[in-house]
Write a structure and sequence with these properties.
two-stranded parallel ribbon, 3-stranded antiparallel sheet, alpha+beta, 154 residues, 19% strand
Length: 154
């Protein structure tokens, strides 16, 4: 699990206090699927319900050392990844979700800005594309479309 910010350069405060940016929580199952959730803050009151709803008790969790993740020790095995100059110390890592962030930001860069009210839709499209990246998307979309057409006829 990890969280990040989306948005271009804005004048003023940088980092987590920057205005006009979109905060997103990501949950990635190793070698599996990713789930993303736009959030309004990094506080535990917002993150904990998402984590408990979308993960199984007894799981192995890899996170950074953000304080909102501390309750995961109770829920399962929790490995805290500590970084030094941006690189993880030791053998454990959260490169899967970091790779997704890179993929998503690269995908959104081409739009040169996304309206705030539609950001969640763009984010979910990128999530879907990432989760189906090893499949033929044309065939997959054609199957979905045919299923919708047949469903609507009856």
């Amino acid at each position: 699990m990890d969280e990040t910010m989306f948005g271009g350069k804005v004048p003023g405060k940088r980092g987590w206090g920057a205005a006009g940016k979109h905060m997103v929580l990501g949950i990635y199952q190793r070698n599996g699927m990713v789930l993303t959730f736009p959030i309004t803050s990094r506080g535990g009151w917002e993150l904990i319900p998402l984590m408990t709803k979308h993960t199984k008790p007894g799981s192995l969790y890899y996170t950074d050392d953000w304080h909102a993740y501390t309750f995961l020790d109770i829920r399962g095995d929790h490995v805290v990844i500590r970084k030094e100059k941006g690189k993880p110390k030791g053998r454990d890592h959260i490169n899967g979700i970091e790779g997704f962030w890179s993929y998503a930001k690269h995908w959104l860069y081409h739009y040169r800005g996304v309206p705030r009210k539609y950001f969640h839709l763009y984010l979910k499209e990128i999530e879907w594309r990432f989760n189906h990246r090893n499949e033929n998307l044309v065939k997959l979309l054609r199957t979905y479309m045919l299923h919708l057409v047949v469903k609507d006829q009856f």
